[in-house]
Specification:
The protein starts with 5 loop residues before the first strand and ends with a helix. Helix 1 packs antiparallel against helix 2 and helix 4 packs antiparallel against helix 5. Strand 5 and strand 6 form a beta hairpin. It is globular. The C terminus is likely disordered. 35% of the residues lie in helices and 25% in strands. It has two domains: 236 residues, PPM-type phosphatase domain (Phosphatase 2c, domain 1), CATH 3.60.40.10; 39 residues. It is α+β, with helices and mostly antiparallel strands. The protein has a six-stranded antiparallel β-sheet.
Amino acid sequence: MTSPVAQRHSRLRMEFGLVSAQGRRASNQDYAAFCAGPPGGPRGALAAVADGLGGYKGGREAAETTVRAFVDGYYGASARFAPAQAASRALTAVNDWIVALGRRDSNLQNMATTFTALLFIGRQAHLVHVGDSRAYHFSGDRLEQLSVDHVAETGEAVPPLRRAIGFEPCVRIDHARVELAPGDRFLLCSDGLHGVLSAARIAEILRNGGAPREAARQLRAAALAARGADNVTALVVDILDAPPASLDGDGQPPPQGRAELQARRSHDGNALLFWRVASCVLLALLIFVLSRR
């Protein structure tokens, strides 16, 4: 999908562009999506990229299943869960399902995939990450890699993954959070892109590439021109507008008096602790005096 679409959550407005290419592989095992979420809902929008492991059976199935199931699980989670909690619960359930499928079906044995997502809520983007797909933040002419590659340090040209969805029954998930500002640009990509393009080249294209769709296309073209052997996927998200800083991370005004209430609770709690300690000291003194009689 390459059509840019503007989305709104409270006063958060975004535009995205998504492209993918098979490259020199026999098939494309990447899968990516952008979802605006239910209008007015507390979960905001999300962007996600998954790269099915090409050396195993069912790589494409793992990637697509993970993204689709995560979207359903994240938006279907109870509103009482914070974004990171909702995301963790959704991705843990997906991992359980992928592991079970790989054990039951010989055609999908050892199926696994990377997974990297950004959840856009109010003035914040929340990172959810497993594997070696990447999330970048381009802001103020500076490119920052938000994710960490979960690969083994073996010195190989293509180091093996240490973590992926489907590898183990218990998945370890990285979380991070970044503040949003108008003009920010984000990139989610598979290793078929970042594995052949330097950070400087990626920054150059994000800086000069125009609208998100065109920037994503230019990134894909540059990766294919570098003669990489892997699938290439690029998902670019622009922040057109963000809620004012006076709002909470979810884009809503903080309840009046909340800070004062928290301070009062802290003061009351300290006073209660003081009187409990004082009572214990007085009781100990009384016992000591009585024992001396």
